[in-house]
Amino acid sequence: MDIPLLACSTRWLLTPTMAASRRLLNLMMAPGGRASTTAAEWMSLVGHHCRTSLAPPPQPIEVLGRAAGRTLVVATGEHDRFLGPRRLATPVQRGLDVSLRTLPDVGHLVGDERPGEIVKLIEGVVARRTKRP
Fold first, then answer.
1. DSSP type of residue 80
2. Please, which residues have CB within 8 angstroms of residue 34's CB and are 6 or more apart in sequence?
3. Which of 48, 18, 11, 47 is nearest to 35 (CA)?
């Protein structure tokens, strides 16, 4: 994480107010993105009632091996500050043998910013699976 995101995350972990939640969510979005009130309220509730385990560790190679031969899509937002394209492209190629899809003008919160992009990814997987012999 970069310093502004680390500072904002720490502030939110210590005092998960609506303002802190909104600031954190806004940093997770593409530049100029603004979190909805609903998302900020949800994030505040999470901060008040849950304890974070932080980011999970990478999956063991045995787990990744189970994905071999399956139709996979791995995507990230162009502006994702946690798991962005520069960080993910090589591990995704090496570990899963697929190319990372980078979604333009999106941050970490694709589902909030551009839910239609997720629909397109799923439609692409379904289309590829139905074309198999």
1. -
2. 26
3. 18
